[in-house]
Protein 1
Amino acid sequence: MLLLALCLASGLSPAHATGFNGQSYVPLVDWARANGLKCYWLKRGDEIVVTNRTTRLVFDKDSRMAEVNGTDVALSFPVASDHGVLLIAQMDLNTAIRPLLFPPRFADAKRITTICLDPGHGGKDTGNHTFWHSEKTYTLALALELRDQLKKAGFNVILTRSKDTYVDLPDRPALANRRGADLFVSLHFNATPTGKDEVEGPQTYCITPVGASSTDAQGEGANFGATAANSAEQKSLLLAYQVQKSLVKNLGAKDRGVRRARYWVLRDATMPAILVEGGYMTHPVESKKIYNATYRHQMAQAILIGILTYQRLVSPPPPALPSTHRPGMNSNRVSIPNPRAVKTESLMTK
Ligand SMILES: [Zn+2]
């Protein structure tokens, strides 16, 4: 049985915010208390849980990865420790934690009607290449599958490419901007030079906050100014989070987290924009799934569920559908597939 040591603020936390990494840090216990959450140690001094009836956050000392209701989310700065008290950067509370726990009611909310899908690479740009498999082939196959499912759910869909053609990176978000897309979703598959047997699972990127370095940039790029995408940063994070959560849950995949990057295709988009890395072409088991149409169908379904969940959180309800419209996948309102059914199907194809 776990001993739940309540870390009361008195005697445990310093009274004032502290500076690390050039950032203002605050004790997690203080922030938790101010927001009606409680803390207990999973590992004293190293790993802390911040929780209430509906929320569970896990933070680790010196780590840039936090767990938000079961899904990993990259922080911009590592959790710090001062005399046994764990501290979090104020910027991470503002740009990673608060927007997920308390999704703002967006005053400019408008119904999502058009979604731009961006199949990564194409033409002379093959993307990752393993044996006779090119990433560009599978990003397009996934995009076409997702296009069909989104259309059935009532969305308009634009593709940055629908064939094996080369498209310059800046042209991709530019198309979404020009056509007034409400969301931009770039689709990729990953590869790793080392640890091929271990590294697997989807990860979802959204724009890096101003003043921070990207998740995989090892401290570089904190001086990069604001991008067009930073204006939709909170929505992009929420979309990335919901898509990542759905991918992990419905595919039964390993969670490689929500991450931040200033990729070309992300930083020029003026609408909420994410980049999904659907899994690793270098992993012996996951790669075979990526090359399998049934698995890609399930992956598209998981992305659709993430988008619909996001839509429910930020958008006004869609207008009433005409009475001739059949319910089910053709309806914008009741089109969420049963996640359990998806999970069962994915297990059956393993
Ligand atoms: Zn790629």
Protein 2
Amino acid sequence: MTILEKFDVTCDVICVGGGLAGLAAASRAAQLGLKAVVLERGGDELYACNSRYAGGVMHVSYNNPKSPPDVLTAAMTEISGGHADAALVNAIATQAGRAVEWLRDEGARFARAGDIGWRQWILAPLRPAVTQMEWKGRGADVALRTLEKNLRERGGILHRGTHVVDLIFENGCCAGVKARQADVEKVFCAPAIVLADGGFQGNAVMAGEYLTPDPQRVKQRGAGTGLGDGLRMARAAGAAVSTLDAFYGHVLSCDAMHNDRVWPYPQLDELAAAGLLVNRQGRRIADEGMGGVYLANLIARQPDPLGTFVVFDEAIWQGPGRAAAIPPNPTLLGAGGTLHKADTLDQLAALMGVDAHGLAATVREYNEALTSSATSTLQPPRSARRRTPFPFARAPFYGAPACSGLTYTMGGIRINGNAEVLRADGTVIRGLYAAGATTGGLEGGPAVGYVGGLIKALTFGLLAAEHAVRVQENLSKGI
Ligand SMILES: Cc1cc2nc3c(=O)[nH]c(=O)nc-3n(C[C@H](O)[C@H](O)[C@H](O)COP(=O)(O)OP(=O)(O)OC[C@H]3O[C@@H](n4cnc5c(N)ncnc54)[C@H](O)[C@@H]3O)c2cc1C
């Protein structure tokens, strides 16, 4: 039997979720003098969340977050194909640099990767260049522990094992949450609630509705702790929601479905974006030039998400195949991933179980279109928007059975530049904020624009806290 306990109104800000967005919001609010509480569903000391598992690269659409705002605005606008909400783009463009400095001042350590512009702010200690999940004691994990410690020292608290299930409203303003701790239901009250529950990638029903016909055939490339609770609660409160049909993820070896050594890395993105992505009929399924995040989405949308193959030639295997920080050449084979290799296309098709006539026709059309610079006439067209096409020419030829790795959902709760939750008519739901992967409007869209999960979580976590502080200061002054 559940017991309902009403807590005294002792806190000023409640953050739903203890990932980077929730902990940054709570720690910042506490730093500015508010009593902040984080309610986190995970019960372990080092509870799972995407923030803890992250590689730790703080970037803005592959730019240094401290780049001038006009550079960051242009990058986000370009990558989203103009889809991104201008107010959110502006918030990131103007605040991301300050946000990384704040995190450093909080005690998080950063390293840089040589002169690579977008890898100047990587949470340290760096994760090792290994294919499997390796997070304990690494930069992102240490940053979360540091934020929790700071929160505690400032009088705040993180309650583990606390699953928020409902929002509470008083006089039209969000005023608290209902949460379950084991079989006890509790009410926590505060004039500011920040939803920071990390997206809906772990909710198979929602993933099936918006992202893929078969969620069981898509690899959960992360903690899988985002269950869509924030989105559900915000919607019930009248919040507007962005399009929900895109996610951040990567093309992985199909073996990731059963072999933990081949995920979260190597990503097969660079191979797919230089070569061809085909189905069992040997036909291309997408514009490979749009890059790996886009291709991961297209794979997930196939009727059979486990029926696609990345095919490429020796030049690609020796070139783009070696390009990433944890490149598929050689780590895919080292980790036990499947890679078919053959001297002829017919042999390759047979090894993959792909229609040989279809594959031969696809490769012929593709090479001809490349030679005559007519790749836009291919079906689907082949652009060079994010990656340049390579001819499929030099044996041996390769084929890797692929799957889609789903890291976090890009669509979600609509917010403004202060992280306040919006209704469809553009008015704010007072007292309700959202930050991180539970929000929408910045990333996604038809081009599957990617800005960066960590910088989005950090920046909007800070902005939510700072706005809540301003509102409560004004109230105390009677403004
Ligand atoms: C392997 C991997 C590598 C990555 N590398 C990078 C990178 O290098 N750079 C980058 O920018 N991004 C990266 N990302 C993405 C990035 O980690 C996320 O986008 C970001 O951390 C999201 O933060 P968040 O706080 O919104 O969500 P999370 O970190 O997922 O936190 C949400 C928290 O909310 C809790 N929660 C959920 N529902 C409830 C509820 N109802 N009540 C209470 N608590 C709840 C969850 O348990 C979880 O702890 C990576 C992700 C992965 C998995």
